[in-house]
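Attaching the record inline, Q. Sequence:
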Amino acid sequence: MTARAHKISDVLPAARQSLALEGYFQIMEHWGADNAASRCILGNPPERTFFEWKRGKVGRVPSDTLRRIGYVAGIWKALQIVYSDATLADTWVTRRNEAFGGQTPLQRMTAGDVTDLAAVRAYVDAARAPWS
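Structure, as predicted:
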C-alpha cells in the first residue's frame, strides 16, 4: 500500500457525487440562496458546469467542490440540531451576526475561500456542542 493521500473524488463514487450536489442545491433552496451565492460557495465552477449540475447532469466533481459541499452539509445539520424550528434554522444564515463582523453567515460563506466555510462550520459546531 502506498502512502498516497486519496482525494475525496477518488473515494466517492460518481453516483454519490451526484447525490451530494442534489442535497447541496436543496440546502441552498432552503436558505434562499441565489445562483450567484450558490455558485460562489461551490468555488465558482464555470457557469455552464454549475447549471448542468443544477439540472442533475453530473460527471466527476472536483475534490475541492465536494469538500465545500461537506462543509455546507455540516452547517445545515448543526443548525437543525441547534434549532428545533426548521424555519429558524434555515433563516439563521441570512441574519446578521457579530461573530462574522456584522455580516450574515451566508455573506461570510460567499467570501470565496473554503476557510470561510470552515469558519461558519466551526461557529455552528461550537453552538451545537452541548447537544452532540
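The chain has a mean pLDDT of 89. Helices lie at 8-11, 14-31, 35-41, 47-54, 63-82, 86-91, 105-109, 114-128.

More tomorrow.
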